[in-house]
Design a protein that fits this description.
Layout: H1 18-32, H2 39-46, H3 50-54, H4 60-72, H5 84-101, H6 106-111, H7 117-133, H8 137-160, H9 174-180, H10 182-187, H11 196-219, H12 223-227
Helix pairs in contact: 5-7, 5-8, 5-11, 7-8, 8-11
Length: 237
């Protein structure tokens, strides 16, 4: 009598967890982009019904919040004994690296208000460092905003901006630029990706130098000039 073949072992379906859902969602967005992302597609990738995802995340918005929090957890923190400006430099570089690591998710991070618990902790840490560098409430708040403008704008431009944006139906020719826009033509050689690093560092160091100068002015009790509004010059009619 022939012996029966042993039954084939069927691996148990992997247990669903918040971490597994976030990882799968992140992989889908990295591959297909935010516009194509759906909970139905995520369920298919996980081998489950969409309602199983909603058991862990009440809505798609909650899941997107979790993706933003997960991304922010990778932003570098520096030991507290470092100079606050040096810590800001490290965090700025880490934020830019996050944008390049998650270019298809970054547009969401860039416009998210970051008002989750993880988000406000990141903002509080950056504000604390800016205040440590510039002990003045108004100036620290303004420099925090300027730093945010620079980092978000630079990261968006590098990962989803000018080079990847829509083009005119009939763009100006190279010949036209060479003849009529010499400065634009000359600047073209410094636009490719290999110049991004030094360009980003130029802007970042200029901003940090300005913060140090503002801090020195405060130490000299010369805050009046820093706080004085600039005069508005209106043309004569």
């Amino acid at each position: 009598m022939a012996r029966k073949a042993p039954p084939v072992a069927v691996p148990a379906r992997q247990r669903l967890t918040r971490e597994r859902i976030v990882a799968a969602a992140r992989a889908l967005i990295d591959r297909d982009g935010l516009g194509a992302f759906s909970v139905r597609g995520l369920g298919a990738a996980l081998g489950c019904e969409p309602m199983s995802v909603y058991h862990y995340f009440p809505s798609k918005a909650h899941l997107l919040d979790a993706l933003v929090d997960d991304a922010l957890s990778c932003v570098l923190t520096v030991p507290p004994d470092e100079d606050p400006v040096d810590r800001l430099r490290a965090m700025a570089r880490s934020y830019r690296a996050l944008a390049h690591r998650r270019p298809r998710l970054f547009p969401l991070i860039a416009v998210h208000r970051l008002n989750t618990l993880a988000g406000v902790r990141v903002i509080e840490e950056v504000l604390r460092l800016v205040h440590a560098a510039i002990p003045d409430d108004r100036l620290a708040t303004q420099y925090f905003r300027v730093l945010s403008y620079y980092l978000v704008g630079a990261a968006l431009d590098e990962t989803a901006g000018y080079a990847n944006g829509p083009s005119a139906a009939e763009p100006a020719s190279e010949e036209y630029l060479a003849e009529n826009c010499p400065h634009l033509a000359a600047a073209a050689r410094f636009q490719p990706p290999e110049w991004r690093e030094s360009t980003f560092e130029l802007g970042l160091e200029s901003l940090l130098d300005s913060m140090r100068a503002a801090s020195h002015s405060i130490e000299r009790h010369d805050t009046a000039a820093l706080h004085s509004p600039k005069p508005v010059i209106r043309p004569k009619h």
